[in-house]
Amino acid sequence: MEEIYAKFVSQKISKTRWRPLPPGSLQTAETFATGSWDNEENYISLWSIGDFGNLDSDGGFEGDHQLLCDIRHHGDVMDLQFFDQERIVAASSTGCVTVFLHHPNNQTLSVNQQWTTAHYHTGPGSPSYSSAPCTGVVCNNPEIVTVGEDGRINLFRADHKEAVRTIDNADSSTLHAVTFLRTPEILTVNSIGQLKIWDFRQQGNEPSQILSLTGDRVPLHCVDRHPNQQHVVATGGQDGMLSIWDVRQGTMPVSLLKAHEAEMWEVHFHPSNPEHLFTCSEDGSLWHWDASTDVPEKSSLFHQGGRSSTFLSHSISNQANVHQSVISSWLSTDPAKDRIEITSLLPSRSLSVNSLDVLGPCLVCGTDAEAIYVTRHLFS
Amino acid sequence: GKELDGEPTVTVRAVNSRKNQMCFDWGPGRLLVSNEPPSNKKEMCSCPFIYIIRKDVDRIDERLTGKIQKSQLVRVSKNYRSVIRACMEECTSVFAAKDPANGRQFSSQVSILSAMELIWNLCEILFIEVAPAGPLLLHLLDWVRLHVCEVDSLSADVLGSENPSKHDSFWNLVTILVLQGRLDEARQMLSKEADASPASAGICRIMGDLMRTMPILSPGNTQTLTELELKWQHWHEECERYLQDSTFATSPHLESLLKIMLGDEAALLEQKELLSNWYHFLVTRLLYSNPTVKPIDLHYYAQSSLDLFLGGESSPEPLDNILLAAFEFDIHQVIKECSIALSNWWFVAHLTDLLDHCKLLQSHNLYFGSNMREFLLLEYASGLFAHPSLWQLGVDYFDYCPELGRVSLELHIERIPLNTEQKALKVLRVCEQRQMTEQVRSICKILAMKAVRNNRLGSALSWSIRAKDAAFATLVSDRFLRDYCERGCFSDLDLIDNLGPAMMLSDRLTFLGKYREFHRMYGEKRFADAASLLLSLMTSRIAPRSFWMTLLTDALPLLEQKQVIFSAEQTYELMRCLEDLTSRRPVHGESDTEQLQDDDIETTKVEMLRLSLARNLARAIIREGSLEGS
To answer: What span, in angstroms and rounded, lies between the C-alpha atoms of B515 and A309?
Structure first.
């Protein structure tokens, strides 16, 4: 993989997200949003990687990303999601959830809606009010689900002032991330290593299912659902371990893959090529996991300076018997046949890679070294 | 800081500047630009100040074991300077674009950076490059040309006009070109004058020839220093002859040029304005009077140049003192003066570090025994920790301080404010990577306490597990048990039911897990298993004594079941536990009436238990007896 561009932006980047393309569009990704953290003033910024053709004042050229607009954000940006083409939802360490609106005609961002006390330890009514960081947000127009360090789950609807549904004390530990399974169901991961499935159609405050590892209760930090198979989920843990789960089959993961040396912050299935998975970690690396069953010769394309490539077999923790017409490589149980090829995408180790996003052939990631990396040729 | 007025080349007071975005992409190292907030350094920064942080240089140098080549160090030094220059350029463009009102502030900002580059450049020439006589002068010429750059704009002005040689500043331009030793360009100017006024064409040509034939040391030249000196002496004498013959008497301009080229001090001093500073004067003087000057002789010329140039009218600025110290090869003095004058630890820390790699700093023992390089790096790193987001860099710097780095890191890292769990995790990771177990424990304990206060018992447990803090795990378990006693049911079943191997962390935690298991078994009507578990909890001493009454009370429904659940042996055990408990009841400091009431309740409970146990014992004995019999 060639041509990864770095830009130093003098703010530590906590989240990077591609703007989604209109359905049926043939374009490639052009705009992405970033959120910063740990500064006195944090910002949500929009960047463009459109073709500029000529040299700009920086001496940058075609691949360089340019700032379109930004807006101040109170607190660290803990999570960021595009709600639709124009709106971005941001989760803050102050417990506030904000919807920002982008105005393309004058290139500005403005606050469209805000739920300021979405997450808290002691409520707004009491004198000892203390807020709690909101750690994760996921959108499915018109719904927004948020989770936080207070163990609370909120279901918001855009343009509704109050939360549609709140599950207090859904978890006695911190909820780190959330994703949709099938529409009325969400899945959360927490800091005692459990996955919990919640069904909003049910009235109670109990999860409909709990899954966890039998071993140590290693906190789970990130989760992503397979784009096509809604029962396949990948999680990343504090020990850098990548786990693949089939939520229909028992309570244990299907695969456990030893990955990073430190916390895995984000895991993403590629939305259109789900045989490819991407993870980033506190150890400063970003990995591309390729489980496609192509010819082994493909490995030679990856042996180019600065990257390492290894082959790794699945290690299976249980013998899940999978009966389905389409067998996902991630769930396959034949270690000899299926190998996953892993490539490290960043040229050299830096500080933590906090976030990544993939769309088509484009990848963007942000680091604690105040750099944003973009590549437009993921699969070359 | 101390504020000195006069030329704004070095302002001691830090300037206020807005944060701006600086984006550049550099080779070997990772470069970051950011604001430094009001730092707690004694009399140093009181306002935000833009500075540059260089990450990887130290690391790269440390990795080069054994001989570090001079060329590599020079390259590193040049990199530093590029960074400073890029910063200056960005400053200029960004501030001009965004905030013209802050013009004065940003211009002093730029001049500070310019001074930094000036000093660094000189140090590079003298200490790192260690240029010998001959090349030394060439480097110094480059140095001056880089920093006195009005020439270019003047040149553009004059050449752009219709009649360059008639331009007001024409002769100024020619003079300054000569002062900077740019004789080829000066010749070109003169040829324009020759074309314009044929009357002076003759003397212009002669002057042009003189300029062309001045012997200089060029990089590829193989002539020795002695040869050069000889040739130069000849040329100098030729110039003298022209002066004696009054060849250029008709043109005062050309005559003064000749005197300059002869190194005449008075003539040079007449051009004070064009020279603009004493070090330019110094270099020009050397160029035309002693081009093969040796490094060790520099300081004579430097001191006298400064004195002559200032002429007793003004006193030296801090910048002047720094440069003088450099010419005297007094590195310690340079560093000391820089530390005082620049409210910016970045500069001295990195310069000292680089010079240390050149093996130029003797171990300058300060009172706490560390050497100067480390002292400066420690100061710089501490400054980074004062910034909200730069603590991660500070960690790296502390890693490169062999004596006090670790201790300093231990002190600083516990004081980083942790407003989110994610930040806490990053800090913990830093500690764990360096085996700082004490800090891990103390940070986890603080987080766990906060979690308990917020009633996030699962989080509290999670932190205890991370720190392997058995004591805290016990505390959390006690909390759960207390909640159970008060409410009659467990909170956070999702946690207790799924403790997994973490249960082993502390006895209390194990008890909690097992106790919950007992309840589950009872709910599933697995009475025999529930019974033996309950008993084992007491006999194995895993249950806290304070909980025994509750456990025994839990046993009541099992004792009252239709079928016999507890065997005789087990019943005896239970009785033993009960006696054990009642014989050693603690004395509470309550009022008499409450005491009596409590006693009443207690006595009733105990009586009930005794009765149940006795009945069960009877039934068990009968049952076991009859089973054996048949």
So the answer is: 49
The A87-92 sheet, strands edge to edge: A77-82, A87-92, A97-103, A108-115
**Domain count of the fold of chain B:** 3
Q: Which domain holds residue B573?
A: 525-630
B505 and B562 share one domain: no
For B316-365, how does the pLDDT look when each residue is reduced to its tens digit (9 = 90+)?
A: 888 899 999 999 988 888 888 888 887 667 888 888 888 887 777 765 55
Residues A112-129: tens digit of each pLDDT: 999 999 999 988 888 888
Give the B window 70-99 contacts with A, CB below 8 Å.
Answer: 93
**pLDDT surpassing 70 at residue B61:** no
Residue at which a domain ends, from B276, B309, B326: B276
Instruction: Please enumerate in sequence order all residues whose Cβ is within 8 A of that of A245, keeping only pairs 6 or more positions apart, or say none.
Output: A195, A211, A232, A233, A234, A235, A252, A253, A254
B252 and B169 in a common domain: yes
Q: B21, A10: Cβ pair inside 8 Å?
A: yes
Read off the pLDDT band of A100 (50, 70, 90).
very high
Decide if B177 is inside a domain: yes
In a domain, B237, yes or no: yes
For the domain spanning A213-292+330-379, the CATH number is 2.130.10.10
Tell whether B471 and B543 lie within a shared domain: no
pLDDT in tens, A203-236: 888 888 888 876 667 899 999 999 998 889 999 9
**In chain B, whose CA is at the least distance from the CA of A216?**
B501
Report the gap between the CA of A322 and the closest CA in chain B (Å).
26
The reply to whether residue A217 touches residue B498, judged by beta carbons under 8 angstroms, is yes
Please name the CATH architecture into which domain A21-52+59-168 falls: 7 Propeller (2.130)
Q: How far is B466 from chain A (nearest CA, A)?
A: 9
Chain pair A-B, CB pairs under 8 angstroms: 141
Buried b (16+ CB within 10 A) or exposed e, A157-182: ebeeeebeeebeebbbbbbbbbbbbe
Q: Is B33 on the interface with A (CB under 8 A)?
A: yes
Q: Please, where in chain A does CATH 2.130.10.10 lie?
A: 21-52+59-168, 213-292+330-379
Q: Does B31 contact A352 at a Cβ distance shorter than 8 Å?
A: no
- Looking at A14-28, A320-334, B236-250, B466-480, which range is the least confident one? A320-334
Distance from CA of A227 to the nearest CA of B (A): 27
| Final residue of a structural domain among B245, B276, B307 | B276
Q: Does a cis peptide bond (omega within 30 degrees of 0) precede residue A23?
A: no
Say how far apart CA A157 and CA A177 lie, in whole Å.
19
Hey, are the CB atoms on A133 and B37 less than 8 Å from each other?
no
The pLDDT of residue B57: 41
* CB A39, CB B392: distance < 8 Å: no
| ipTM score of complex | 0.87
Length of chain A: 380
**pTM here?**
0.78
Q: What residues contact A24, with CB distance under 8 A and at least 6 apart?
A: none
CB contact under 8 A, B34 and A10: yes
CA B293-B295-B300 angle, 5° bins: 75
Backbone angles phi, psi at A373, to 5 degrees: -110, 135
What number is the average pLDDT over the span A133-150?
94
- How do the residues of chain B divide into helix, strand and coil, expressed in percent and rounded to 5? 70, 0, 30
- Within this chain, do residues B627 and B535 fall inside the same structural domain, yes or no? yes
> What is the structure's pLDDT at B100?
60
| Integer Cα distance of B616 and B614 in angstroms | 5
CA atoms within 13 A on the CB side of B241: 8
pLDDT at residue A319 in the model: 32
pLDDT higher than 80, residue B69 = no
Query: For the segment A51-93, what is each residue's pLDDT rounded down to a tens digit?
Result: 644 444 444 444 578 889 999 999 999 999 999 999 999 999 9
Confidence band for B105, pLDDT divided at 50, 70 and 90: low
